[in-house]
């Protein structure tokens, strides 16, 4: 966007001339005043250009203004400067003004075009609902240990500390006192599901060679409650086996402790999914709109559960949920 600067125009008001104390018409003329030769110029008494002082008639000549200390009678009138000098001076003044203002306008335009749109006042793009997460990075690995999907890691094992693979809470969040980013018990995880299914799920976890569970939770100012669980098993086969035993595929499997049943979110296009990982997203409707969003991520030996819920009648925003899901998927990949 280029900001246009209007070209200066000639002023329409008469220039303000300081009031000067001139000799009275009834005062006696100054004595012994010698006429000034016409060939000698008067210092600092150059007449104001005729273009700047309105004439009193068609043939009126400009009347010279004389400083108070030089208010002397002039024997012979001093000839006015040539009109060509007045024209040249006026042109020079306006040319300088145009160049200065043009330079300022160009500098302003270049400054604005080099700025991001969100930095220009009045042009900031309205936020799309994404949360302000801190910059993410993968944790360091033990010496000689490859990433889970490296060719040298056939078993697809996460060698990094699982707690460091949890997505951090975004700016403005209030941390969950029970889900602090550390290890949690099986009972804490199972408590997310319906009471009549908790016994069944606990038995499945006991039979699946589960190593440990890491979790983090927070609540946003708008009331959205978020929970992320990472379950690590002894092998990729055990992680996939639990996913199959709980029937997580086109259905959410064992239902969460929520009044309504969730359905596969058909609007989820797996954008941002890391290769070699699998994502299943669910919501209260087929479009994913509703008060709760749920998703599973399977990445090698780890199975993640991501939940965003909103109490009451308010809809849980879909954009921050998908943002959380994509970022957690990347950390696990």
Task: Say how many strands there are.
Answer: 7
CATH class category of the largest domain: Alpha Beta
What does the oligomeric state look like here?
A: single chain
Backbone structural class:
alpha+beta
Poorly predicted parts: 1-78, 108-115, 117-125
Overall geometry comes to: globular
Indicate the mean pLDDT.
76
Q: Which key phrases capture this entry?
A:
333 residues, alpha+beta, 5 helices, seven-stranded antiparallel β-sheet, 7 strands, disordered N terminus, Protein Transport Mog1p, Chain A, 2 domains, 22% helix
Please describe what this structure looks like.
This protein is an alpha+beta fold and 333 residues long. The protein folds into two domains: 1-8 and 21-126, no CATH class; 162-332, Protein Transport Mog1p, Chain A. Helices cover 22% and strands 16% of the residues. The protein contains five helices and seven strands. It has helices spanning 83-113, 186-190, 195-206, 236-245, 318-332, and strands at residues 174-184, 210-219, 225-233, 263-264, 278-283, 292-299, 302-309. The chain has a seven-stranded antiparallel sheet with strand order 1-2-3-7-6-5-4. A hairpin with a 5-residue loop joins strand 2 and strand 3 (225-233). The longest helix has 31 residues, at 83-113. The two termini are 41 Å apart.
SSE inventory with pairings:
Blueprint: H1 83-113, E1 174-184, H2 186-190, H3 195-206, E2 210-219, E3 225-233, H4 236-245, E4 263-264, E5 278-283, E6 292-299, E7 302-309, H5 318-332
Antiparallel strand pairs: 1-2, 2-3, 3-7, 4-5, 5-6, 6-7
Put the structure in a nutshell.
With 333 residues, this protein is an alpha+beta fold.
């Amino acid at each position: 966007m280029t900001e246009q600067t209007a070209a200066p125009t000639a002023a329409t008001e008469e220039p303000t001339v300081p009031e000067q104390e001139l000799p009275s018409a009834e005062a006696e003329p100054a004595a012994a005043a010698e006429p000034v030769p016409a060939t000698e110029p008067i210092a600092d008494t150059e007449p104001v250009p005729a273009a700047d002082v309105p004439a009193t008639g068609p043939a009126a000549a400009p009347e010279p203004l004389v400083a108070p200390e030089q208010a002397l009678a002039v024997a012979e009138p001093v000839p006015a400067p040539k009109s060509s000098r007045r024209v040249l001076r006026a042109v020079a003044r306006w040319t300088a003004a145009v160049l200065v203002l043009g330079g300022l306008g160009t500098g302003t335009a270049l400054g604005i075009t080099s700025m991001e749109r969100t930095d220009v006042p009045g042009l900031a793009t309205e936020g799309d609902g994404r949360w302000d997460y801190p910059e993410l990075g993968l944790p360091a690995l033990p010496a000689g240990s490859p990433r889970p999907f490296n060719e040298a890691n056939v078993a697809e094992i996460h060698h990094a500390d699982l707690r460091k693979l949890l997505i951090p809470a975004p700016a403005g969040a209030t941390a969950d006192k029970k889900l602090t980013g550390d290890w949690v018990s099986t009972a804490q995880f199972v408590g997310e599901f319906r009471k009549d299914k908790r016994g069944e799920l606990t038995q499945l976890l006991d039979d699946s060679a589960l190593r440990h569970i890491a979790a983090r939770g927070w609540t946003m100012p708008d009331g959205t409650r978020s929970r992320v669980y990472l379950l690590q098993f002894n092998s990729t086969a055990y992680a996939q086996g639990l996913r199959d035993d709980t029937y997580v595929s086109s259905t959410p499997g064992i239902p969460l402790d929520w009044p309504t049943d969730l359905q596969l979110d058909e609007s989820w296009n797996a954008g941002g999914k890391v290769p070699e990982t699998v994502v299943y997203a669910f919501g209260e409707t087929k479009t994913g709109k509703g008060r709760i969003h749920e998703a599973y991520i399977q990445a090698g030996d780890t199975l993640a559960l991501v939940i965003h819920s909103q109490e009451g009648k308010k809809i849980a925003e879909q954009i921050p949920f998908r943002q959380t899901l994509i970022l957690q998927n990347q950390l696990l990949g």
